[in-house]
């Protein structure tokens, strides 16, 4: 059982406070949907958890099974089992997808993964995501379409088997078929690993596939309301305006 516990988190970007006391706990096997109007700090939260240096934590704590995540270097956080599938994955020319992944995996374990096992797992992930078989040998995200980049983030997740995976608008830019393929891969990966999931998306359709166990709305740097599927449905129907009257927050 893994537990990521975030308490009273305050995060600033370029001296502007974006997160203003955020609390959230994610455990193995849970699926958390994180919603909220654009520009309110969803990506900032994920970046701060992963240790992106642009985001300064000024107050609060992030603990993974009691360990102080904020005291860890960026690479230590991913070795500890945290994973972020990004909204805009970066392209790295000169490093192939398979070399990149193999070094990520090997950095996390004492004995390097056998080439045989690695190739078998990577082929399986590429097949499951219905990607082109030459994907392994192409430079990381170089010349990938938007949809291919997103699928590739899921290939990485499947190979790295994180204990807590965070996905930032991974569904944006996916067509209906791709959305289904990606969702099934996420579900399958969670079934196999029992990872905890934190999924940022605006779309009820994506959540229909993922069946979140928890849902949260982030407004102005705080989670202002939490619930379950009912909350997702309400936002899908009514947007965020009702928050203003019910919770006195302006989105
Ligand atoms: P969301 O993901 O909810 O749309 P973000 O976390 O991306 O929101 O952004 C929250 C606020 O922080 C916005 O005002 C945004 O402009 C600002 N912000 C986020 N990242 C950066 C950055 N790297 N540099 C400057 N401002 C940023
Ligand atoms: Mg945004
Ligand atoms: Mg964002």
Automatic annotation (TrEMBL):
Domain ABC transporter: 4-245
PROSITE patterns for the chain: ABC_TRANSPORTER_1, ABC_TRANSPORTER_2
Pfam families reported in the protein's UniProt record: ABC_tran
InterPro entries, alphabetized: AAA+_ATPase, ABC_transporter-like_ATP-bd, ABC_transporter-like_CS, FeS-cluster_ATPase_SufC, P-loop_NTPase
Family matches, as Gene3D superfamilies: P-loop containing nucleotide triphosphate hydrolases
Entry keyword set: ATP-binding, Nucleotide-binding
A GO term, aspect molecular function: ATP binding
Similarity field: Belongs to the ABC transporter superfamily. Ycf16 family.
PANTHER family: ABC TRANSPORTER I FAMILY MEMBER 6, CHLOROPLASTIC (PTHR43204)
Protein name, UniProt field: ABC transporter ATP-binding protein
Gene responsible for this protein: yurY
